Amino acid sequence: MRDTYDVVIIGAGHNGLTLGSYLARAGLEVLVLERRHEEGGGLCTEEVTLPGFLHNIHANYHTFVDLAPPVTDLDVRGHGVEYVRPDVQMASIYPDGTALTIHSDLDKTQASIARFSERDADTFGRLHSEAHGYIDLLLGTLMYQPPMSVKELTKALAAFGVEDRSEFLSVKLRRETINQFLDQHFENDKVKAHLAFHGAVCAYTNDVAGLAIGYPLLIGKIDNWHLCVGGSHRLAHALWRDLAQNGGTLVTCAEVDRILVDGGRAVGVRLGDGTEIAARRAVASTVSVEQTFLEFLDSSATSEEFAHKVKTDVVHKDWTLFSVHLALSELPEYDAAEFDPDVNRAWVVNLGHDSLESLNADWATIRAGGLPEPKPNAAVNSLYDPTDAPDGCATGLLRQFAPFALADGGEGAWERAGRWYGQHCLDAWRRYAPNLSDDKVLDWAVDTPLDITRKLVNMPHGDWMMGEVSLANMLDTRPLPELGQYRTPVEGLYMAGSTQHPHGYITFGPAYNALQVMADDLGVEKWWREI
Amino acid sequence: MPDIYSDSWYEAVRDTINARVATLPERDVPRGSWHAVVEIVGDGASPYVDAESVRRFLVRIDDGHCAWYREIDTANPDGVDLDYRFVGPATAFDEIAAGTRDPIDAALDGTVRVRGDMRFLMRQAALVKTLLEAYTHGVQTEWPQGQPPYNGSGGDA
Fold it and tell me: CA of A146: which chain B residue's CA is closest?
């Protein structure tokens, strides 16, 4: 590590590495600093149960493969990433033993939905076709560009008459919940529950007003879920490799203590051990807003008003994820396979939510700090990636929507509640897959909401999206209007992580969009801008 | 009437576009220059572009007006910093030129793919709509090899 670089990037998650790679390929001297012992951030794969069982601790679903420009620009496949797109992408198993499956083949998905409602199957087909048609346009407009305002967007939608041309897109969606959208277009409770569940897994809570505006986009990629063979961390390796091959430097175990400011301009960083590193042209932060502005910067670097806004106006998700990682000696066999054999090959299975009311009730419980009766979703990566477990065995991942702070004891209560709640989640899975008896579960470990924040300190409140997903915290107002275009009140300091538009998840979007702004400001040639 | 895709047809389209842009309020006409490539991909149905071949037209816009156009034989012309690329099957472009297919629908349903700064296009909705309207309805076109939808015989449908 030298003492001076062109750009210093704080955080080596997929956004930090992506930004670093693009800039390094543009010829800049880039340093990426990571507090943890390894790169990747949420791209974290560990043997938390038994040796040979590879568990994705955080990011498991890669839904923007071949939609996000960096996947091709940075040649992640050429750097060793292999993606699998499961043919049975997702399922819901309902308490009455019926099941619905989402396939990579639209006809099969429609056939599954038709068992519940032929009308809904037709509607889904039209919605999917319409959304699939404009997903390219929407992604280019909304995801992989620095954001427009909601006002500009709705004005443009009106000017182009999109509402008259689309069965599903409408300006009024900006005021509606996903529940309302589903109630308007679908009739069957179980179908609606599955589609709402899909939104929730993407952090689009079905009862939050305004999120209907993004829902058609989610449907456009409902069958684009990919698994990273060998674990999600492989993607982090690939991004690091690209960075290194293009002259960039990654340093791990390098905790930033201060962003250095001189004359109102970010000029470098100081590490916890006192090492100072100068940044000739820019510093980019991919960690939380709170860390960046309240911990890394002296209070004199920004106005009191801005610092106050960071403390009071940065909003985090009001629910998070409780996870159970399992080492299994065999694959789950669901009773519901009698209804639909494909559930045994479904990568991700929603266990139990059979109506919008079921989901709504759990959100209410969670927002009050309570633990709902578990209705987890179960992912079995080994179905499509046998390399993630020893021969004949499988990994399992149960995810349960949960609060960060429990009403009884706050977030610290997870210390005593984690194992107990994990057992309840496992019991819930067994009700649908009774073959998973004690002797088939070789080991299991929990990852509580508190663990999320402890391991990934850039995710306060267990907030895996690094900011609430709501209309008020979307586009150019995410995470604050002052930061919405990736610039900050400190000249030369940029925000490029999941706190920014579009949001968390493995989208590459925050880094890609910050890159456009930084390139404009720094006069960097946009080698990636292939029109 | 000029033949579709002929020099005289493009000149008529250009003149029509510029005449209409001249009627727009100044606030709806952005200053600056842009280059766009239109890629018309032969699909085996259109008699105007051979199957599996591509005809490419480079267009320059200055201050909202069409300054010039030229047919090019490469996807990335030397010395030109492209701002936009529009790609689609020949039949779709023929139908747009004939006024039988809405170009916005064609973009929305993914038939015509758009590459470039979408925010700018969204913000310039008035200009974009004027350009498209002139392209689709502004020029009466002769269809010597048949107008879409084609009847398979190469004659007028």
Answer: B119
Q: Tokens at residue A175, please? A: 């005021």
Helix (H) or strand (E) holding B87: strand B84-89
| pTM of model > 0.90 | yes
Contact between A146 and B107 using a beta-carbon 8 Å cutoff = no
CA angle in degrees (0–180, nearest 5) for A500-A504-A507: 95
Q: What pLDDT is recorded for position A384?
A: 98
Which ranges of chain B does DSSP label H, i.e. alpha helix? 7-21, 90-97, 103-108, 118-123, 125-137
Contacts of B123 in chain A (CB under 8 A): 148, 152, 156
Interatomic CA distance for residues A237 and A241, integer angstroms: 6
Residue A161 with chain B: CB contacts under 8 Å: 104
DSSP 3-state assignment of A415?
helix
Angstroms from B76 CA to nearest CA on chain A: 9
Best of B74, B122, B129, B130 to disrupt the A interface (most A CBs within 10 Å) is B122
Which residue from A135, A156, A165 is facing B125, i.e. has the nearest CB?
Answer: A156
The ipTM value here is: 0.87
SS3 for A162-215, per residue? HHHHCCCCCHHHHHCCHHHHHHHHCCCHHHHHHHHHHHHHCCCCCCCCCHHHHH
DSSP string covering A332-366? ---GGGGT-GGGGG-SEEEES--SHHHHHHHHHHH
Tens of pLDDT along B93-126? 999 999 999 999 999 999 999 999 888 998 899 8
Q: Kindly report, residue by residue over A399-443, the tens digit of the pLDDT.
A: 999 999 999 999 999 999 999 999 999 999 999 999 999 999 999
Q: Which of A137, A146, A156 comes nearest B108 by C-beta? A: A137
C-alpha B111 chain-centroid distance? 14
The CATH topology of domain A4-47+59-80+229-315+459-522 is: FAD/NAD(P)-binding domain (3.50.50)
- Using DSSP bridges, classify how beta strands A88-93 and A83-84 pair: parallel, antiparallel or unpaired: unpaired
Cis bond upstream, residue A479 (ω within 30): yes
Interface of B with A (CB under 8 A): 37, 82-85, 102, 104-105, 107-111, 113-119, 122-123, 125-126, 128-129
- Which pLDDT band holds residue B152 (cuts at 50, 70, 90)? low
pLDDT at B155: 42
Q: Which residue spans within A263-405 are E strands per DSSP?
A: 265-271, 276-285, 320-328, 348-351, 377-379, 394-402
- Asked if the Cβ–Cβ distance from A155 to B125 is below 8 Å, we say yes
Domain positions in chain A are 4-47+59-80+229-315+459-522
In DSSP terms, A283 is beta-bridged to A8, A493
Q: How far apart are CA B5 and CA B54, in angstroms?
A: 13
Please, what is the angle between helix A189-201 and helix A356-367, to 10°? Answer: 40
Distance from CA of B154 to the nearest CA of A (A): 30
Instruction: Please name each of the domains of chain B with its CATH number.
Output: 7-137 (3.30.1050.10)
